[in-house]
Design a protein that fits this description.
The chain is an all-alpha fold. About 80% of the residues lie in helices and about 0% in strands. It is built from 19 helices and no strands.
């Protein structure tokens, strides 16, 4: 058989560039994990209807159990993946998430559903930092910053598709909101096996700090639990105070182990990276604002306009649909502006959107004039802030710590979402549909969100390294 020209000349055949396929696999898994969060929120009422006799406090664990475990396990999962293999951690996370999703769809009781949601969260905690870690260690250096922005945009896009898809699937059965994860998960696993190389931190031969990993899981899990349940238990209740005390003790153990253990779960050197430190502070504040503004819009639509799940999803979709287009614009603006300035601009838009909703609100709710304009500004802000924020948080880290760094940033985001929801619930309290006090509550909530957006705008300027102003 006649060989190719390359073989005739004795040259090796060209190696096919698989960067785009790798990016697709990693983004699809992260998209799947975030999509699940949004579709479950829309289906919450339908889930409660299917389990007769379930109280609201019990049903809340379908959401809260996932939030708490996800926040608690992100950093330990990322650190272990750095040491033992990111590809293996990614495949294990996707497999666990997919199997748990299948189990959720057929859960025989409410508490079985909560248990399977906890398993889902464990899978998501493994696949999230490993997907970003693999992206940063597998792709060429010149493509990493842009790829991280695409990764972040894909997760934001889940916010646009999730509510609409969830509303449609609930019309058939809420079980389908979990079943859609199975084919996505299988495809991601097949792609990972065929395309992804194994990467790990070969310089570390000792097992990472097990006690530190347990302490950080207890600390962040306790903090999330106290924030989520404090309003229900009472902020001065003994249960709430006990959880806060355990949280503080666990985080003190983490701080001590960071300094003393030879292989700490969080390397103190990471926190000395200026862009990484300020990106975490800004991510926390940004997600407090976004974590509050999204449910505030949904509640306003459902209490003020009596929208059902499907119409609410369609009404919410325009803001997130702007994200990929604005992110592409931000990619071009990044050649002229520093990452810190772009993130600051994005946070300013989020705050401005909340201000616009606050000043235009009235007792007679109007979606087109009172909610949509401000919500679109929030979408613009997310498109500018989130991709650039995540990109700058991780690109300056040493390759051996990218999964851990990614996990820390995503933990900051997750805790921000919990704080945002807690802030919103604390301000809104018990709503009376159409009443003037409901209007005042929403206005106060949007002003509070705008204030957090302003703080995030200010901290954003710390992201850019002074010696590299355009990066």
């Amino acid at each position: 058989m006649r060989g190719s020209a390359a073989e005739t000349l004795g040259e090796a055949p060209p190696v096919r560039d698989r960067s785009n396929l790798i990016l697709l696999v990693l983004c699809s898994a992260a998209f799947m994990a975030l999509l699940d969060v949004f579709v479950v929120n829309v289906a919450f009422t339908a889930i409660g209807d299917s389990y007769s006799g379930s109280e609201l406090s019990d049903l809340s664990w379908v959401l809260n159990g996932y939030t708490i475990v996800y926040a608690a396990l992100l950093i330990p999962a990322g650190r272990l993946a750095d040491r033992h293999g990111r590809k293996a951690g990614f495949i294990a996370g996707v497999a666990l998430f997919s199997l748990a999703s299948l189990a959720c769809a057929f859960a025989p009781s409410l508490w079985w559903l909560v248990a399977f949601r906890v398993l889902q969260a464990a899978g998501a905690a493994a696949l999230t930092p490993t997907s970003l870690g693999l992206l940063l260690t597998t792709l060429p250096a010149e493509r990493r910053a842009g790829a991280v922005k695409i990764w972040a945009t894909s997760t934001a896009l889940a916010g646009a598709i999730g509510p609409v898809l969830g509303g449609l699937l609930v019309k058939v059965s809420w079980g389908w909101i979990f079943l859609i994860n199975v084919p996505l998960g299988v495809a991601a696993i097949v792609g990972a096996v065929l395309l992804l190389p194994e990467t790990k931190d070969s310089s570390v031969t000792r097992i990472p700090d097990v006690l530190g990993a347990v302490a950080i899981a207890i600390g962040f899990g306790g903090l999330a639990l106290a924030l989520v349940k404090g309003g229900e238990w009472g902020w001065t209740d003994r249960s709430t105070l006990l959880v806060f005390a355990v949280t503080v003790a666990a985080l003190l153990v983490v701080a001590i182990r960071m300094v003393r253990h030879p292989v700490p779960i969080i390397d103190p050197a990471l926190l000395r990276v200026r862009s990484f430190f300020w990106s975490n502070v800004t991510a926390l504040l940004f997600c407090i604002a976004f974590g509050a503004v999204l449910p505030s819009v949904i509640l306003r639509l459902q209490t003020g306009l009596q929208y059902d799940a499907l119409i609410t999803g369609l009404a919410v979709a325009p803001g997130p649909l702007l994200v990929p287009f604005v992110a592409a614009l931000g990619q071009r603006l990044g050649k002229r502006m520093s990452a810190g300035k772009l993130v600051a601009l994005g946070n300013a838009f989020v705050g401005l959107g909340a201000v616009l909703m606050a000043i235009s609100a009235s007792v007679d709710v109007n979606y087109w004039s009172q909610l949509l304009p401000g919500w679109m500004l929030v979408g613009v802000g997310v498109g500018l802030a989130l991709p650039n924020l995540l990109a700058k948080a991780t690109v300056d880290l040493p390759p051996a710590r990218v999964s851990t760094g990614s996990a820390i940033v995503n933990t900051s985001r997750q805790l921000g979402y919990v704080l945002g929801v807690t802030l919103l619930v604390a301000i809104l309290g018990t709503l009376t549909t159409g009443a003037a006090n409901s209007l005042d509550s929403f206005r106060w909530a949007w002003w509070a969100i705008a204030t957090v957006g302003l703080l995030a705008t200010l901290t954003s300027f710390g992201i850019t390294t002074p010696s590299q102003p355009n990066k």
